[in-house]
Every structure is written in C-alpha cells, then in structure tokens.
C-alpha cells in the first residue's frame, strides 16, 4: 500500500465566527485558523441585522405576553 498526500478544496465548508477583533475559521467544529482584522474595520449587514461593538444582532418582532392564553376576548370572558 502506498500513501499519497493530496489537497481537497474545503473552502465552501469553512465557517467564520467574529471574536475579539478577528474572524475565527472552523471546519465543522474544529478551529482551523483565524483572520486578523485591521483597526477601523467596517461590518456591513442586511437591513434586519445590526452590528455593534463586535457583536451582530438580528432585529425581530416578538410578543409582549407570550403566556397569555386568549386574546381579543370580551370583558365577560367570552372569546
């Protein structure tokens, strides 16, 4: 048996996570490297998202009282 080294393109399987001013690179759950970001970098996100202090937030609409069983009921309790 002969072992042979070869390169496999895994580019489309790499995930980046923003952390402490750099992007950590992962293949599946294994950290494989990082990308150092220069000072003054700019994060651009879609309109339902927001970047603030190295964190990315998604703007969503939620209910105020998720435990309420009934809505739009009459004063007497009839729904």
Commentary on this structure:
The chain is an all-beta fold and 79 residues long. It has a domain at 11-58. It has strands at 14-19, 22-27, 30-36, 49-52, 55-58. The strands form two sheets. The chain has a three-stranded antiparallel beta sheet with strand order 1-2-3, with no helix packed on it. β1 and β2 (22-27) form a beta hairpin. The protein is elongated. The mean pLDDT is 88.
Map the helices and strands.
Layout lengths: L13 E6 L2 E6 L2 E7 L12 E4 L2 E4 L21
Antiparallel strand pairs: 1-2, 2-3, 4-5
- Give the neighbour order of strands across the main sheet: 1-2-3
Counting DSSP H or I runs of 4 or more residues, the number of helices is: 0
Compute the CA-based radius of gyration: 24 Å
Order of helices and strands: EEEEE
Biggest β-sheet strands, sense, barrel: 3 strands, antiparallel
Count all strands and give the number.
5
Classify the oligomer. single chain
Which structural class matches the secondary elements?
mainly beta
Q: If you average the pLDDT, what whole number results? A: 88
InterPro entries: Uncharacterised_YusG
Protein name: DUF2553 domain-containing protein
